[in-house]
């Protein structure tokens, strides 16, 4: 009987419950790789747009996300302040709140802080170590953890014996901030190993050996060779593997959608793009190139 009454209220008065908000970042996924992938589940949420990242590297890009900003459309002929204003106004629709007050967003300028003030519990699960819980990214979250694997979104959703998964609740809505690394170099699916792939030191190698280099650069470099640059065939293989990773993630998200309550709103995007040999570049970070700023963005309520 209670369920019938709730249904009648929903029809005649509108559903006034807060939405669960699921915010998913496909790390390093460039726009055209996403566009080339088959994504039937994500297509149910909304049509993907080509947008532009505020940064070319994981940490600063995620920091802007946690300020309440998403990839932008780079509009011409408008004041930047108006772009921020119009973007912030979208949180009313995303949360199912009639009027979002910007005054509640300042001075912290923190999305998790603001969402807690609206009544949501806040959870963050990240796959890339540069976002780990000891960084400032974890501020204002009720729960913030590094995922058990850097490339397994299904474990983030479903959990394991030692790790609690993501569980949106119909009556106790939450904000779930998720970063997953399948689309990040070396573009591995769960269970795959990188041993047979071309190797670059990457950010983790840089951090690992930076102190040794600064103490004695000549001794550190003696006998060492630079990582060999990739061939066009290897670049193409990376690009195609990123597409395959997107299609895998679409299936994982689809299975998660099947167990989410109806008041769940999804925001799915990439934090920055990736260079696969264009103009002599590979990767992302200290690169100024359109392909590293082109990202996908889609959003919508659970269909």
Total number of distinct structural domains: 1
- Helix/strand order, N-terminal first: HEHHEHHHEEHEHHHEEEHE
- Our estimate of the beta-strand percent is 15-25%
CATH architectural type? 3-Layer(aba) Sandwich
Give, in spatial order, the strands making up the sheet with the most strands: 2-9-6-1-5-3-4
What is the C-level CATH assignment? Alpha Beta
Corresponding CATH superfamily:
Alkaline Phosphatase, subunit A
- Describe the biggest sheet? 7 strands, mixed
Q: N-to-C terminal Cα separation, in Å?
A: 25 Å
Low-confidence stretches: 7-13, 200-208
Shape: globular
How large, in whole angstroms, is the Cα Rg? 21 Å
Give the proportion of residues in helices.
Answer: 25-40%
**In total, how many beta strands?**
9
Mean pLDDT reading: 87
Alpha-beta content class: alpha/beta
Give the helix tally.
Answer: 11
Topology-level CATH name: Alkaline Phosphatase, subunit A
List keywords for this structure.
single chain, 303 residues, alpha/beta, Alkaline Phosphatase, subunit A, seven-stranded mixed sheet, two-stranded antiparallel sheet, 16% strand
Description of the structure:
There is one protein chain. With 303 residues, the chain is α/β, with parallel strands linked by helices. The chain has eleven helices and nine strands. The protein has one domain: Alkaline Phosphatase, subunit A. 36% of the residues lie in helices and 16% in strands. A seven-stranded mixed β-sheet has the order 2-9-6-1-5-3-4. It is globular and about 55 Å long.
